[in-house]
Amino acid sequence: MDPDGIRQLRAERGAQHVTFSEIADHLFDFADRHPEETATVEAIARFLVEVEGIEHDHDLHPDRGLPAP
Asked: Residues 6 or more apart from 66 whose CB is under 8 A from it?
């Protein structure tokens, strides 16, 4: 996987503060425009719910702070 879009998001908007409600709105918008990706969007949303409280500073932790699957 080459996460250029993720890197671009971090570089261009990483300093912004948003709510999860705003992120959810963007996920709904994306799913509406790309219905074939709805299952992936739902999986990302569930992942974001499940990682609450887990410290995962990507600059400090090479494993991203998440346990191996």
From this structure: 51, 54, 56
Say how far apart CA 37 and CA 30 lie, in whole Å: 8
26 vs 52: CA distance, rounded Å: 19
CB neighbourhood size of 41 (10 A): 18
DSSP, res 38: H
Residue 27 neighbours by CB distance under 10 Å: 17
Is the entire prediction scored with pTM above 0.85?
no
pLDDT tens profile 5-20: 988 998 999 899 999 9
Residue pLDDT, tens place only, 19-42:
999 999 999 999 999 999 999 999
